[in-house]
Amino acid sequence: MTKPKTTKKPKFTKQVKHQSWRFHAVDAKGHTLNLEAPESIEGYQVDELVIDHWLHLDKMDDGLYWLRVGTKTINVSVDGNGQVIKMTVEEDV
After folding, report:
1. Are the C-beta atoms of residues 46 and 25 closer than 8 Å to each other?
2. What are the Cα distances from residue 80, in Å, to 36, 46, 47, 55, 84?
3. CA-to-CA distance for 28 and 46, rounded, in angstroms?
4. Which end of the chain is more exposed for a tag (fewer CB within 10 A), N or C?
5. What is the rounded distance in angstroms from the CA atom of residue 24 to the CA atom of residue 35?
6. How far apart are CA 58 and CA 31, in angstroms?
């Protein structure tokens, strides 16, 4: 399963030592989480996490996760106990 590429503009940018990082987290309802105020996200489960252009994690469904790390796409299935039951890794060509 390969997630389609999007051209969305980053919703949150964090300045870190003269670098601009895209850093974005979304809850299961699609609300952007305020990562500057961790107490405001206590108890939330993150549905999507994006750090810059090289790391993207998305919960596709219960027990199914899609990751983009550099040029690799990783699909992970986990059981109800959080144990990995299947993982595939694809390299961009």
Report:
1. yes
2. 31, 17, 17, 25, 10
3. 7
4. C
5. 8
6. 14
